Amino acid sequence: MNGDIPSSEAAVPVSASVAGGAGGAAGAAAGAGGAEAAGGGGQRGRPRSQEADRAILTATVDLLGSRGLAAMSIEEIAARAGVGKATIYRRWSSKGLLALDAFVTSFQEQQPLPDTGTLRGDLIAALTAWVQAVTQTSMGSMLTGLIAEAQHDEELRAAWRDRVLEPLRTQHRIMLDRAIARGEIPATVDREVVLDLFFGVALHRLLLGHLPLTDDFIREVVDVILDGIRPR
């Protein structure tokens, strides 16, 4: 889905991963791809402006937080960023992918890899950071809006897996690998199931809103998971 971007103007989509918690809009912008094509036959394209990238991503985050993905438009983003619509069209092939890059740039900065010395401490610290991001900042409404949009946008859904889900799971597998090395959990533990349980219950509460995401909830989730995977 290209949202409100005309196909005749949508040129080069952002394709780089922002895995590993790349810091700042410049990190996402640096991976956003190549040189910006300049008009005129035979002229070499000028380098992309990281300043423009930062302005676009910042404007997108602001509008995502205040208006939501469905309500914001490329025209509003361009006006707030002080760039032309064509500048955005050359970088992102859809409004959804632009929103995803803006979300990832901010969200991953708030998800550091903890190293407390124990698996329980690491899991509590990691889930606490996730909960704080989605309950105390605009990241929560952005996340739920992107998940909703991804249900009927195959390109956005694939990008979500590549740029959000897998980088975060890769980071959290490190915590499990360290716990295996320390002898806290057996090497036979299914790490993918552990991660599904770890993220799934919190995301369930965020999306449905039937119960709060509290500190007690975080500790209970972690202890239930550990009770199931620790050596007997």
Descriptive overview:
- The chain is mainly α.
- The protein folds into two domains: about 80 residues, Tetracycline Repressor, domain 2 (Orthogonal Bundle), CATH 1.10.357; about 120 residues, Tetracycline Repressor, domain 2 (Orthogonal Bundle).
- Helices cover about 60% and strands about 0% of the residues.
- It has ten helices and no strands.
What are its keywords?
single chain; 232 residues; mainly alpha; Tetracycline Repressor, domain 2; 10 helices; 0% strand; disordered N terminus
Give a quick summary of the entry.
With 232 residues, this protein is mainly α.
The count of helical stretches stands at 10
Binned, the helix content reads 55-70%
Structural class: mainly alpha
CATH class of the largest domain: Mainly Alpha
Number of domains: 2
Relative strand content: under 5%
